[in-house]
Design a protein that fits this description.
The complex is a heterotrimer. Chain A is built from 17 helices and 22 strands. By secondary structure, chain A is an alpha+beta fold. A 5-stranded mixed sheet of chain A has the order 1-22-21-11-19. In chain A, helix 3 runs parallel beside helix 6 (191-209) and helix 4 packs across helix 5 (139-159). By secondary structure, chain B is mainly alpha-helical. Chain B has one domain (16-100, 116-228). Chain B has helices at 16-42, 48-60, 70-100, 115-118, 120-138, 153-161, 164-191, 198-228. In chain B, helix 1 packs parallel to helix 8 (198-228), helix 5 (120-138) packs across helix 7 (164-191) and helix 7 runs antiparallel to helix 8. Chains in contact: A-C, B-C. Chains A and C meet through helix 3, helix 5, helix 6, helix 11 and helix 12 of A and helix 1, helix 2 and helix 3 of C. The complex binds flavin-adenine dinucleotide (FAD), protoporphyrin IX containing FE (2 copies), iron/sulfur cluster (SF4), FE3-S4 cluster and FE2/S2 (inorganic) cluster. Iron/sulfur cluster (SF4) binds next to helix 4 and helix 5 of chain C. Residues 68-74, 91-94, 100-102, 104-109, 191-192, 218-220, 254-257, 266-267, 271-272, 274-275, 311, 444-445, 467-469, 481-484, 487 of chain A line the site of flavin-adenine dinucleotide (FAD). Chain C: Keywords: 2Fe-2S, 3Fe-4S, 4Fe-4S, Iron, Iron-sulfur, Metal-binding, Oxidoreductase, Tricarboxylic acid cycle. Chain C: Residues 149-178 form the 4Fe-4S ferredoxin-type domain.
Chain lengths: 680, 233, 247
Amino acid sequence: MASAQGTSPLNQPAQQVSDDARGYYTPGEPIVDPVAPTGPIDQRWTQRIFDNRLVNPANRRKLDIIIVGTGLAGGAAAATLGEAGYNVKSFCYQDSPRRAHSIAAQGGINAAKNYKEDGDSTFRLFYDTVKGGDYRSRESNVYRLAEVSANIIDQCVAQGVPFAREYGGLLDNRSFGGVQVSRTFYARGQTGQQLLLGAYQAMERQVAAGTVTQYTRHEMLEVIVADGKARGIVARDLVTGEIETHLADVVVLANGGYGNVFFLSTNAMGSNVTAAWRAHRKGAYMANPCYTQIHPTCIPVSGAHQSKLTLMSESLRNDGRIWVPKKAEDCDKDPRDIPEEDRDYYLERIYPAFGNLVPRDIASRQAKNMCDEGRGVGPAVTEVGPDGTEQQVRRGVYLDFADAISRMGRKAVETKYGNLFDMYARITGEDPYETPMRIYPAVHYVMGGLWVDYHLQSTIPGLFVTGEANFSDHGANRLGASALMQGLADGYFVLPNTIREYLADGPFEKIDESHPAVVEARTDVEQRIQKFLSINGTRSADSFHKQLGNIMWEYCGMERSEEGLRKAIDMIRDLKKEFWTDLRVLGTNESINQSLERAGRVADFIELGELMCIDALNRRESCGGHFRAESQTEDGEALRHDDEFAYVAAWEWTGEDGLPVLHKEDLIYTAIEMKQRSYK
Amino acid sequence: MATPTLVKGARATRSTVALKIVMAVSGLVFIGYVLAHMYGNLKAFAGHDAYNDYAHHLREFGEPMLPYEGFLWVMRLVLVIALVAHVGAAVALWRRAAKARTVKYQVKKNQSSSLSSRTMRWGGLALLLFIVWHLLHFTVGKVNPSGGATNDPYNLMVESFDLWWMTVIYLLAMLALGFHLHHGTFSAIQTLGFTNTASSRARAKQAGWVLAVVVAGGFSLVPLSVLVGIIEK
Amino acid sequence: MRLTLNIWRQRDAASAGSMQKYELDGVSEDMSFLEMLDVLNEQLNEQGEEPVAFDSDCREGICGNCGLMINGQAHGPEVTTTCQLHMRSFKDGDDITIEPWRSDVFPVLRDLIVDRSAFDRIIQAGGYISANTGSAPDAHAAPVEKKKADRAFDVATCIACGACVAACPNGSASLFMGAKITHLGELPQGQPERYDRVVNMVGQHDAEGFGGCTNIGECTAACPKEIPLDVISQLNKDLRTALKQGR
Ligand SMILES: Cc1cc2nc3c(=O)[nH]c(=O)nc-3n(C[C@H](O)[C@H](O)[C@H](O)COP(=O)(O)OP(=O)(O)OC[C@H]3O[C@@H](n4cnc5c(N)ncnc54)[C@H](O)[C@@H]3O)c2cc1C
Ligand code: HEM
Ligand code: HEM
Ligand code: SF4
Ligand code: F3S
Ligand code: FES
């Protein structure tokens, strides 16, 4: 059936009438993906693999590829391109490629293997992903993702990734994130770790073979764009402080997501936007920066010292019941003393059909609503508002397993969730078998990222972007277990097949250190570092980061409003000024200097934060992870406006003082018809 | 000390693990020897003649295929080779370990290791000294500290252990041996790769206890019995 | 609570270091150990003193970046990573000594940060299965006995933190190495390279300058992932087989 699909458009280009962000941006030319494929949707990728030119094996050795990032996307690409015989240089800021943040992913990875014979197929995975993304992703990309998903599993098994197996010795699958088929492959709660180690080991094998050179504890601080093409990077050796230039024929960014713009998130401490943002400033468009995914089941903040938030697997919602007290005065009581009739199982009440299993964004928003109403539970923590005012709020809702324990028995609960319960107990010091867990939403993933075409190439020729760093496949919301799939799809199968079309024109004319573009990029980096070290103000980079996080969370978090976003933009602009005049970075450039590293990252986050707010302000609709207060149904549900916003917002940088330019890429579907979602 | 390059042509024979295997095999030879030797010593309880007969029998063992004392010399050869290998490997590993951490911790706690495992090297050194002394005493030098004759093994032994300080030296040596065997037995089994499960590891540890107690205890019985007068000339 | 911290400070690999004493007040028991150090650093920055450098990234016990010797115990008094250690394991008024991993193979780069790149090289020497992208058969082509699959997974959870090396009196990396050898050796895909793998990995381990294992067992007690001593036995067994095969 699928092959007939994909030949004629099913929707009209969007016509935006609202203009909330007027004054904050300049409208630009619409953007079209220059390499978008056409034809039946299920043949597009196969055809493209064939159409893209090949690179003669003898020539590959002469082609230098820089890959920034060693997560699933970057690590897999380095291994594969190394195997193919290219000359790869791989960069990461950690001390080993194996520590990239992909290692923290817990739940699993989707693949349309249909091993369960439960009606799954490439088309169904494609369909679920587009729908899950609230029809804000490109269908060709998503179809391709679903198509290569099965190969990923084969590849990983061949590398020795120890996926969960059944007694017969075959791979086990589970259903994840409310999907009705079991297509998620997993390795207990450590899927990301095992997948990353597979990619890492494959990459280390290439290091031994001499095709990949790895630069650890190196942070990319600038891309070099010479004669219109990305030709290298400037990186700082984080141990010696040396500023190095690395030149190549092509540059790949796989630097992960920027959820840390909120300061508190489930991302690793070092996750940052610097690589992508520097590229953005050099001409790469940033697409849909405001699309953020907030995960409902994280361990709540316990005080002002909090440095990051810990995710608890979504699977807990399968058996736990979420509630808060009906009366605010019950909030500091022992939950076990609150009688049944005084408890508000609010998800079950509001969404009787889906109950505790509503999608992530809904569960998150409702938890926030309950706490804002004053019915949150757990210790009251001091919240410093973005404007500096302090208030005491309880940020938590109960996730109660009492019913599950009496229904299934403590043993069964233990086998199913034991490790999560242990982790919870270690972090909070409370026993979740005895008292209900407390959870609260936290920033988890960003769907936005650098704009790329079907070949994963950004608007800078020769600059490719893969993994969470690009915007391409998840639309306005990502399904559980799909980020790992995308990272590996990009790294193992997509990029290696698209980059050759670009490299077939190479090797490009050699440039050297004296090329003006190289000198300029290098000088910029050096001056910036000197600036950080010489401001000599009073505040640490961390304190600015926290303040930025407060602003973002308050106004650009789970619910965004026109008024709030305007306020946030003003506050961020003030913060930026203060940052550049009151920052204090001690020490020197010439040794490990973690304050200096952070300062650079925070500076970029501040600029990104402003753009995110502008993007959110412009998009006067609610879709996926983006909820605009002005766009909801009568009963408070997200309301999309396909007629106005079925487009990708790609932003162009125009300088420190210029307004960003908005380029729109229309989303035209040929294989799936758009529908409003409903979970009532 | 880190080598930023990859080694080429690594050989199993040149690895630290091979050294350990040498140590384990020679250690097992020692274990076999001490068990047999202990059995021989316990003949002391059967009296003067039985004991001396046994010593004599050892020398005739294997005749006429082997010359007089032939078996003994084969055994001595095996023991010497084992000793050289065992001590050589021990020294090599010791030096390696010393170089692997030249800056010591200000505070270091031991969490699960046994005292015996941490004292293997000093214990081994003590055993080496003991063996030298022991050979001087009974085999090579035949010293009789109480001044009596040395050509009658039974009498030499009984007269020696009538001296309290001789008994103390031997008992201390047996303590060292017990410690060495407690960890050594487990360690050898682990080194040879037979402890791939928690239960086999537990059994290997038990074997260590049993051997330590049986061997150290068994050897100690004779000097103790002499001292308290159960065994006499 | 109020704490006295004794922390190793060292400018860079070439400089000599020393222990420094810091008083820290207002520590809450809900803080993680590293958040406690964050608070100290914020305080130092205010006083115009350079903050203490230490590694951490995920702060959820999975990336293996963090790792400190706390009062003589690798990762501190609980069986977990330093980032998952919480201040409720300490008491008001405690003296805490914080040192970097000590191993000549892991030189100190600054304060509490060490260079663990030797681990990468051990993996480069053979800690992989050679399977070029695109060459894989269907994932169901080779079923794996559940018991073996489970064991492979159990030991594959090693996070390469280096605590085993730090805790081992011999400075041996056998537990780390054994974990990878056992993981790959349990799977059918890992068989073709099995015996070369062990020889090459051990060869690299020795060349790096790690000590030999004498089965002391401090490593497994310090391991936040509870990798059992079995893996060292397995490593020995595989090497013994390789010896027999004359590799
Ligand atoms: C707690 C948690 C659980 C998750 N669980 C799941 C799940 O179950 N299923 C799922 O599908 N997804 C999950 N995700 C999402 C998924 O893990 C990530 O989206 C994905 O791993 C991102 O991979 P990546 O390769 O794009 O980037 P990352 O793995 O983040 O790698 C980024 C790399 O870039 C490098 N880098 C960054 N900046 C620079 C710079 N300036 N210079 C040099 N190097 C740089 C870093 O060193 C690193 O190597 C989870 C995410 C989190 C936070
Ligand atoms: C002669 C002087 C000796 C020295 C210097 C010596 C030293 C050592 C050392 C340093 C070890 C390694 C420690 C370890 O593996 O944990 C060791 C192991 C061992 N020793 Fe000895 N030892 C000596 C004598 C003996 C004797 C007399 C026996 C037996 C009766 C013995 C049996 C063992 C055994 C079984 C091991 C374990 C091997 C292994 O770890 O694989 N040793 N010895
Ligand atoms: C209480 C303990 C012991 C007693 C009473 C004892 C007694 C003796 C005696 C009497 C002899 C001489 C036998 C002969 O020449 O026929 C002897 C020889 C020897 N003993 Fe012991 N022994 C004891 C413990 C040990 C231990 C613990 C070891 C080894 C670790 C050991 C190693 C030897 C060796 C190597 C010889 C020489 C054998 C030869 O080559 O002739 N002994 N011992
Ligand atoms: S074996 Fe354990 S202690 Fe050693 S590196 Fe791995 S996880 Fe850390
Ligand atoms: S502590 Fe060291 S000696 Fe071996 S058993 Fe562990 S590596
Ligand atoms: S910081 Fe990642 S394991 Fe501790």
